[in-house]
Design goal:
The protein is α+β, with helices and mostly antiparallel strands.
Length: 246
């Protein structure tokens, strides 16, 4: 009996932290709508590492007139704001206050703040975009075109005219750790709804397969607590009946 009591106490202490977690996260999930857990986003780097979600990594940087476009493997950002563009980019430049971005078979026109205005299709995939004093030039498959004055259509560009073209080229990414951290700070990290995090904490999935295993063990410990508790109560009741004077 003493050994049973000792095991009951050990299991109770071991299961306490899991019981507290289940109680708190369960209450939060029961009131998810009132607490707006689906609307609150969290994105701490440590939390993202637990989910295996890496922070965006810069792969290219385009600068023009004091502004910059930062390109990662999956997204394009303007001053930290994600743009409706898909990497890789053949080039990007500011022209009369508008961003002109070359990607695939399209020239994408954006406002200086990144709002989409229009797209212009090209006959071939673009490998470079640049400008002369008078026009924007694109190049693809050994041919060159110029955008008309309205920036809505392409015209044949006569390279024999000898106009100097300033091609858009990505700026070198900083090699020093301080510069890399500064550039990384301009990228918003990945985020998840708070409800997802609370639900995964409730089930143990937040910590991967090990977390699920621990919570399975905790469930077995709580089951053992119930059994040993009931057994102690029944034992106590039987002892009382046997010792009760008649």
């Amino acid at each position: 009996m003493k050994r049973l009591i000792q095991w009951h106490r050990v299991l109770g202490l071991a299961a306490a932290i899991f019981i507290i977690n289940l109680a708190i996260t369960g209450l939060l999930l029961n009131h998810s709508d009132q607490l707006k857990l689906t609307q609150h986003m969290v994105g701490h780097p440590l939390l993202m590492r637990l989910y295996g979600i890496p922070h965006p990594r810069p792969v290219a940087l385009f600068r023009s007139d004091g502004r910059q476009l930062l390109v990662t493997e999956e997204q394009v950002y303007l001053n930290g704001r994600p743009l409706p563009l898909h990497p890789p980019l053949a080039g990007a430049l500011l022209y009369h206050g508008l961003w002109l971005v070359a990607s695939g078979n399209e020239i994408i026109l954006l406002t200086a703040d990144g709002e989409l205005i229009d797209t212009v299709s090209t006959p071939a995939p673009i490998d470079a975009i640049g400008q002369t004093k008078e026009a924007v030039i694109v190049r693809g498959n050994g041919r060159q075109w110029r955008l008309d004055g309205e920036l809505t259509a392409l015209e044949t560009f006569d390279t024999a005219r000898g106009a100097a073209i300033h091609w858009s080229r990505p700026a070198p990414l900083p090699a020093d750790p301080a510069g890399q951290r500064t550039l990384q700070a301009q990228l918003p990290g990945a985020t998840l709804p708070l409800e997802r995090v609370v639900l995964d904490l409730h089930s143990g999935r937040l910590f991967g397969a090990v977390g699920v295993l621990l919570f399975d063990l905790a469930a077995l410990m709580m089951l053992a607590l119930t059994v040993t508790g009931c057994w102690r109560w029944l034992k106590h009741q039987r002892t009382r009946r046997q010792t009760k004077p008649r």
